[in-house]
Structure formats: structure tokens, C-alpha cells
Amino acid sequence: MKCRAEKVIAEPNKTFLDDGLLPIYISPDRGIGSYATVTFGAMGDSFYEYLLKVWTQGNRTSAVRNYREMWEKSMKGLLSLVRKTTPSSCTYICEKHGGSLTDKMDELACFAPGMLALGSSVYGPADSQKILSLAEELAWTCYNFYQSTPTKLAGENYFFHPGEDMSVGTSWNILRPETVESLFYLWRFTGNRTYREWGWDIFQAFEMNSRIKTGYVVLKDVNTGVKDDKMQSFFLAETLKYLYLLFSPSSVISLDEWVFNTEAHPLRIVTRHDEVHVGQSKNIQTGRTRGRKESLFGDR
């Protein structure tokens, strides 16, 4: 009998759109999306992340192939939301409201470069490189969320206007982990020391602006540096963990053996295989073997 938890994904999958973009609210009775915001930021981010990570934790077998197929559709949808700023051509992800786009990106959406890096092996060599390049472009934007403020700490969200690369919307910083999470993944997949340098810059900004005698505190405003009197638990559980892993050997929680959930808890990739006929090899990784009829990126 299929686990009841599977129905949470099986029902939306029945009506999953070709672009794979799901509104942040869905009807619990009908299992279909309502006329609401589509975002890779607040309230939308974990859905796309878990499509990929459930497939990864399931050892990329046919039993979890539906998650991989849904994730691929969602990445086509993500591409439809990608835009570039002027004059510096920073890459960002729009939000969608009905039929219109808003040039706004949450810092929360900065998990996406890491997700894309992790999922780049899903595709053939050409598309794999393109999706990794997109991850690096988005990571550069997220790093500049930090570098663009006087405190060198990112605001909660950013807006983009013609001729203006980015401006802070909501200006608090609550010690979020998403950008350093992506730097960790990009370091593991590329070995580019730049990602460690960016992570060190962000860590130093936390040390300079958020550290107090008893811990680290939220900033009420990244422009003025005014402090609040609280520390979010995810700063220890996620932000500092990913910074630690960024500077650790790749053998520490190897991504060949573990997958992180959205709260940065490592879960071991299960040991299971697809059923195969005599003469076929085991350990089939569907992401590396299935032929593709069309490119994810088209002519992009």
C-alpha cells in the first residue's frame, strides 16, 4: 500500500502544469493551485527543493522517478522567471502573480543556486553545464545582496528596476542561511575558491554587525546596522553549519552519501536499487542514463 504521505505529492502531480510552477496556496479538497503568488522565495521554496532531494535520497530509482520528472518541469518554469538587471547584468528570479511578473527576489530564493548545482547531474553534459552556469550567475547576485549594503549583510528581499541593479525592499537581516548554503554546494561541485572567499566575507559581516557577548542578533536595518534583541535558531542549525562545511574537506558529510533537508539536517541516501533483468547492471541512476528528446534550455 502506498504511504499516505505520498498522496501529498501524488495529487498535485495529477494536475501538474507543464511549467511546473505551483502557487503557494493549493486547495486541500481538490489538490489544485489557487490564483496566488508563484515564488521561489517565502512559502514556495521548499516544494521545489524537496522534489529534487526526495529523488536523490531515494537513490534515483524508478520508485521516486515522479519527483525527478516534476522537478525537471519546475526548472523549465524557473527559467521562464529568470531576468537580468541593467547595467550590470545580475541574474535574478522574478515572482509571478497571475499573468504578470514582479521584479522582486527574496533572499530566501538564494537557496536556488545550491539546488541547481545539486540537480545539474540530472541532465546530459551540455545542459548540465548550462544549469551550473545559471547557478553561478544567481549566486553572484545573492552575494551582491550582501555587498550592496553598508553593513555587508543582505536585506530580506530586493527589487530590480531598469537602469538600477538592485535596491533593498524589506531591510532587516534575520541571519538567514540560504546564500551560504548555495556557496557550500557550489564549492563542492566546482572547487572554485571564490565561493569560500565570499563565504568568509559574509561570516566577517556577521561577526562585525551581529555578534554580541551572548550570541548573534538580528539587524533591524542593514543600512543603519541597528540591532534587535533576538537570534533565530536556524543561525546555529543552518547558517553556521553551512559556513563550517564550506571550509571543511568534502569528505565531511559527503554528498555522495547524504542529502540535506531544508533545515540542514543530513539524511543518508537509502540503499536500494531498481529491479533489473538478468544481464542488466544494477545501481541504475536514471538521471545519468535516460536519453533526452529536448534540451532544458532550448535556444537560450
TrEMBL record:
Covalent S-S links between cysteines: 110-142
Q: Which cofactor does it need?
A: Ca(2+)
InterPro entries per record: 6hp_glycosidase-like_sf, Glyco_hydro_47, Glycosyl_Hydrolase_47, Seven-hairpin_glycosidases
Q: EC number(s) of the enzyme? A: 3.2.1.-
Region called Disordered, residue ranges:
280-300
The record ties this protein, via SUPFAM superfamilies, to:
Seven-hairpin glycosidases
Entry keyword annotation includes Translocase: no
Q: Where does Ca(2+) bind?
A: 262
Kindly tell me the pathway this chain contributes to: Protein modification; protein glycosylation
Q: Which GO terms describe its molecular function?
A: calcium ion binding; mannosyl-oligosaccharide 1,2-alpha-mannosidase activity
> Which keywords, in A-to-Z order, does the entry hold?
Calcium, Disulfide bond, Glycosidase, Hydrolase, Metal-binding
Q: Which family does it belong to?
A: Belongs to the glycosyl hydrolase 47 family.
UniProt protein name: alpha-1,2-Mannosidase
Q: Which organism is it from?
A: Populus euphratica
Name of the gene encoding the protein in the UniProt record:
LOC105141164
